[in-house]
Amino acid sequence: MQRLLVLFFVAAIALPLAANLAGVDGGDPDAENRTLAAFPHWDGTLASAVAYPDALSLWFEDHFAFRARLVRWYSESRWFVLHMSPSSAVIRGDRGWLYYGDDGGAEDYANATPMTPGEVGAWHEAIVRAQAWLQQRHVAYVFTIAPDKHVLYPEHVPSTLRSLHPMSRTDQVYATLSDTRVSVVDVRPSMLEARTKERLYYLTDTHWNDRGAFIAYQRIIEAVRQQVPSTPPAWTREEFEPDEREVPGKDLAGMMGLKRVLQEVDLRLVPKRMRRAHVVDPLGGDPMAEVGRLVTEIPDSSLPRAVIFRDSFATRLAPFLSEHFSRAVYLWQNDFDANVVLEEHPDVVIQEIVGRHLYGFIASPELVPR
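RESULT FIELD:
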């Protein structure tokens, strides 16, 4: 019996390697929502030879045979049997709602630690300086904070998570700007009203869907038009056809290894007329590509130009916003960048940041010229 157990153990640990040597790749980057380690390359140098063993180990950890299946089985057992989230980064809510607990998400929901006076002052100074510097150059400025899903749908968050303070960091930033001349767009009231009619966020994703992004887009364009009247009015809801389709689980499901197991209904908005904006950088790219720099253009010199400092919440805003600008440059960064403004000569700068990032990012006033 002991020999049989030993043989079984040896076969079990050798089988994945044997399968890999036979050409079986156990990695599934789509299911895990991340980039898996690439097979290492030795270029003949001593440095690559030294790095090769660790790189090969990382590759094997991501690609050993049957890995994706084993990860899915583990995740399914945690989800369906124990009714727990398989990932510490994902909070399991009720009725299929998932929330992002990492990257400041849980802290933002709980209002865990308010900003210090110094941190609030840094945000105030950075934004006011940006507005003043842009105004001197006749450039409009709009600032907005995208609300996380738990802000709009707190009722599905587990009762084990509770708010510790009445004021969020988003509230603190908006409050410090209330007596300034900065055009601040707080989309929360409009979205709280709209959520009574339809779902505005994905169940298995941390972001808003088309319908949530559309409401934010309308408020942003309204603020832009107050400063740049040549900006066309925002599209109306009647110019879109509502569409629903079942899709695989999105980013939060992927973090749990359940992207191919959990599904949801994507509530889309399909335009009834042709969009004019097209991506020129990267050439032929997708308007919702999550890249560091995305540029769209419309061949119409009567339209204004824009620079948008953004994060992932602008991904679904971009197709809407781009229809209003002859050139729109989207830069994936939280800090204001004066050099880009000087290079692009925009008519408006839009700065967007998601609320939870206020826990990991504090504005740097020194980056904004006086």
